[in-house]
Each structure stands twice: as structure tokens, then as C-alpha cells.
Amino acid sequence: MDQIIVTGSKNPLQGKVAIEGAKNAVLPLLAATILASEGTSTLTNVPILSDVFTMNNVVRGLDIDVTFDEEEKQVIIDASGQIGSQAPYKYVNQMRASIVVLGPILARNGYAKVSMPGGCTIGSRPIDLHLQGLEAMGARITQRSGYIEAHAEKLKGAHIFMDFPSVGATQNLMMAACLAEGKTVIENAAREPEIVDLAIFLNKMGAKVRGAGTETITIQGVEHLKGAVHQVVQDRIEAGTFMVAAAMTGGDVLIQDAIWEHNRPLLSKLQEMGVEVLEEDEGIRIRSTVTDLKPVSVTTLPHPGFPTDMQAQFTALMSVVKGQSTMVETVFENRFQHLEEMRRMNVHSEILRDTAIIHGGQALEGAQVMSTDLRASAALILAGLVAEGQTIVGKLSHLDRGYYKFHEKLAQLGARIERIKGEDSDV
Ligand code: EPU
User: Fold this and answer.
1) Cα–Cα distance between 232 and 244 in angstroms, integer?
2) 178 flagged as catalytic
3) 252 annotated among ligand-binding-site residues
4) CA–CA separation, 355 vs 335, rounded Å?
5) d(CA 380, CA 5)
6) Per-residue pLDDT reduced to its tens digit, 286-307
7) What spacing in Å lies between the alpha carbon of 333 and ligand 1's midpoint?
8) What phi and psi, each to the nearest 5 degrees, are found at residue 122?
9) Which residues pair with 160 in a beta bridge?
10) Which residues form the Enolpyruvate transferase domain (predicted)?
11) Which of 13, 73, 146, 308 could bridge 251 with an S-S bond, Cβ 3.0-4.6 Å?
């Protein structure tokens, strides 16, 4: 397996970096194309990521035509014929997000059989809210031999209150409700920008979704949906990762087309630390002098709170800021594994349940480390940028799920980083 080798340097990152379309937007958008019984759908600004290949295969597995033009970063989907009802283990096992096909398949075919997502390193991640919502809409659900089977000749609009604003459950229910009879109201819905992007696409397809981005989403069911053209929203987490990279190297980096509104919780913490954050015509510019930064306390929350998907990268930044910073992770119960790996790089931290205390300002040391999940892989690479000597990061399959040409983009900004083919002895 490949490895990334970063040689720490005192050189600040400098220049401009382009951001891809959002992984967490394109996956539900691909699922939404299943709903179109007429015409074709075209998604543009599609990131070239292993999770996108997996979702394309899930959709293809439903006898739907999917063409990914990687050069154009465009996917064309024709779901207008008779479509299948099953999402098998081999894909759902690779990517939990495949569960968002459950609602669309059920709404379109009246029956869906989707493998139950298995274990996950960052937390237990149940899908009870997805299933409860579909049941409220009249679906009969059984779970047997590792599969969820859902039946409903015609889903019925319902009033659903979600105990927690789950991103995936909100998406699944929104999509299912588009073809249900009558009106569905989802209360305490997730408000992430990717939910808004999905609603925009569904409405282009002929759906009647209102209120996305607020805690109450209302969907008036329609008879059928048709294909549409849509540009995937920019990846706020990729953008945020480069913001943190700039901040921790004392850099000056323009993150092109980054959207201020989507990154507000991160930007406000960077400002609190003393990082200069500038909104420019071309995007968001980050300027920092690491020596002057102050420690901060952060709590991850559903949007518009601080994103859990930026937690690992932000702890890398905390580790270079002199003093004691605190990170509370409230969304996932096991998302501090990167801190165990960073210990090998002389990052001093204490973890007590959902809280990590980081004693920042120690000199980081290069080491051989292993990615434990997608965002952890980025965080370890960021730590490597400022560590003394070489950091070798293994298990890059995690990185490839969510970052396109990460090392090349960092190299363009002046980092000493390369990706090599080789043995991953530690994994
Ligand atoms: N939860 C439940 N029951 C449910 C659904 C969720 O208890 O039925 C819990 C989960 O166990 C978790 C919390 O709710 O503790 C949040 O889960 P959510 O459903 O909101 O997350 P998700 O839809 O599974 C998406 C992103 C994640 C991101 C989370 C939170 C995609 C494909 N994935 O996951 O992205 O961390 O929202 O913002 O959109 C990543 O990109 O690195 C990543 C993990």
C-alpha cells in the first residue's frame, strides 16, 4: 500500500489551492438520481474519490446506467428504466453512506433490500432514525441475515421528529418523502450545507422541498421526478483542512471558492486563536504567525456548530499552539484515535471520555504513523508538516476516500511531501 512521507519544515505554506466538490454532498446526490424515472441526471464538480466510485457501483448495481467522466469531473446517470431494489453487502460494507439509497429505492420501487452497515471505527453509528422515519411513513421494515428489507406500496407523508439531527437520516427521509403521498414534515432536521445542496437538486428534479437548512423541512410528495443537472457544492471540510494547514505552518494561503457561510464555525475559532481570516473575491485567505496563537476550547456539534469532520485536523493545530486547548467531541463517541497516533509524534494529550486536553507547544517529532479514519489521515499529515524530521503515514485508503491529490496540493503550497508505492508494514 502507498505511504505519504512528509518532511517537516519551518517553511510556511504559501499560495492558492483549489477545492473539489464535496464528498458528503455528492454521495446523497448520487442516491437522489435513483428517484428520476424520466430523463438523465448530470452532476458536475464531482470529486474523484474512492467513495464516489463505490456509490457509482451501488447505483449501477440497481441496473442504472452510470458514466463517470473523470476528466470533466462529471457523472451522468440514467435511471429511467426499470430499476433493481438491492444494495449488497460488498458495497455497503465499504462505505456506510450507501445506506442513503434505502429511502430512494423504497420510494421508487415499493421495496428495498439494503445490507446493514457494519462496524465503524469512529463510533457505533446506528441507523435507527432512518428506519423510524421510514416506518412513520408507512414502511414495513424487517432486519434479517444482515439485510434491511423495507416494503411500502406507496409511502405516506408523516410528521417526524428526529431525536438527533442526523445528516444521513435527514437525507434518506427527504428523498423518500419526495415520492410519498401527501406532506412530510421533518422536525429537528440536520442543517448541514450538504442537506441544502440535496434539496436544491431534488427541487430541480421536480420535488417540493422547503426549509432545508433550517430545523424544519417540509416535503410535499409528487407523482414522479425527472433527471436534472446540478453542480456539487464545494467541500467545506477539504477547504477547512487547508485552512488549518495554513494556520499551523504560519502560512498565507488563499482557499479558492471556499464559502464563508459554510465554514463560519471553523473560521470563528481560527480568529479566536489569533489567525487572520480574510474574505476575498476569489475565496478565503488564511494568514497566521504560529508563535502568536492562543489556545482555545472547541466543542463539536451538528451544523452550524463546529464540525466533527474538522476535529482531528484542529487538534493537530492545537498541538502546535503553546498552552492548554480543549476539544470536546459530542457527535461520535470514538473519534480521538488520531491523538493516540500523534502521541508517537510527541503530541501531549489526555483523553477523558468525550474530552481531549491538548498540551500544545511541544516540539513535534516525525514518526511512522497509521491513519485510523479519513480525517485522522489528514490530521497526521498536517502534524507531519511541522514535525522535526520525517513522518510516514500509512493506510492511505482512508485518505483516498475524501481527499483528491492531497499531497500534490500541499506540495504546490511548498510542503515537502511525496507519496510512494510500498509496503505498509504497520497496517
Ligand atoms: N445516529 C444515531 N442514529 C441514527 C443516525 C445517526 O444515533 O439513525 C448518530 C450517530 O451514531 C452519530 C450521530 O448520530 O453519533 C451523527 O450521525 P449522522 O447520521 O449525522 O452522520 P452520518 O450521516 O452517518 C455524515 C457524514 C460524516 C459526518 C457526519 C456528521 C456523510 C457521507 N457522512 O455522516 O462524514 O461526520 O455526517 O456531520 O455525509 C467524514 O466525512 O469524515 C464523515 C465521517
Assistant:
1) 23
2) no
3) no
4) 10
5) 11
6) 999 888 899 999 999 999 999 9
7) 11
8) -90, -10
9) 186
10) 10-410
11) 13
